[in-house]
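Field log, afternoon session.

UNIT: design team B
ACTIVITY: writing a sequence onto a fixed backbone
BACKBONE:
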């Protein structure tokens, strides 16, 4: 089992690498972790046996650096998506694969261009909030804290349908993106620990025949407690909107 972590020296803004630590424990350390730094050629460009590629959230300046590092590999990324390779992006990492990122002064940073959406930054107004959504039959919980939002129609390729909070922007309840096994979600920190049922699904996509969770009883109990709280918050929010 191989996992490639892209640019961990910058793509760990919210402790997102805890997701990799948790996967290691789920796999009983029977996994090779390839840490691709900014000065390295991505392993996915030459190695065919990588089970998961992962990239976490980062600063806006780091986004611009990572974009330049990944631009030469856009055709390879497109090929990997077609081959249904597994790629998980959390936080603002997904923005890097869009068309461009627009600053407040309307200047644009040309992104990798794998997908049709684009991001708009608003550094004076930070959005923070709880998140609850539905991915297939799985409830997804998490937190958002962001200075940018994504735009572009993801009605046919969203990751989750939002029940509490916002989708990729304020005007849609479609959160994130999933095309094949390329998955991007704008949720922060220990996303996989907070969503054990999705983690089992992810392990299955990676090729694990009988996925097992580390500390399963504890993470499921914490998940259920958080899920109950978020569902109550969503119900209250729904009542307010009806008034």
């Amino acid at each position: 089992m191989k996992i490639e972590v892209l640019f961990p020296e910058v793509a760990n803004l919210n402790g997102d690498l805890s997701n990799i630590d948790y996967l290691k424990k789920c796999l009983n350390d029977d996994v090779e972790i390839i840490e691709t730094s900014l000065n390295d050629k991505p392993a996915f460009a030459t190695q065919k046996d990588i089970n998961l590629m992962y990239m976490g959230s980062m600063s806006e300046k780091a986004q611009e650096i990572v974009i330049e590092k990944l631009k030469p590999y856009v055709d390879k990324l497109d090929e990997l998506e077609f081959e249904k390779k597994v790629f998980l992006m959390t936080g603002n990492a997904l923005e890097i694969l869009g068309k461009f990122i627009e600053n407040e002064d309307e200047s644009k940073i040309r992104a990798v261009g794998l997908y049709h959406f684009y991001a708009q930054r608003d550094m004076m107004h930070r959005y923070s909030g709880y998140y609850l959504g539905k991915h297939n039959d799985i409830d997804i919980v998490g937190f958002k804290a962001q200075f940018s939002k994504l735009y572009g129609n993801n009605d046919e390729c969203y990751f989750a349908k939002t029940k509490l909070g916002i989708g990729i922007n304020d005007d849609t309840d479609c959160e994130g993106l999933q095309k094949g096994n390329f998955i991007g979600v704008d949720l922060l920190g220990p996303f996989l620990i907070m969503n054990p049922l999705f983690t089992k699904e992810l392990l299955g996509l990676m090729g694990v025949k009988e996925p097992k969770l580390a500390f399963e009883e504890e993470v499921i109990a914490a998940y259920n407690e958080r899920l109950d709280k978020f569902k109550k918050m969503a119900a209250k929010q729904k009542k307010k909107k009806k008034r």
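LOG NOTE: The chain is about 30% helix and 25% strand.
NEXT ACTIVITY: expression trials, pending approval
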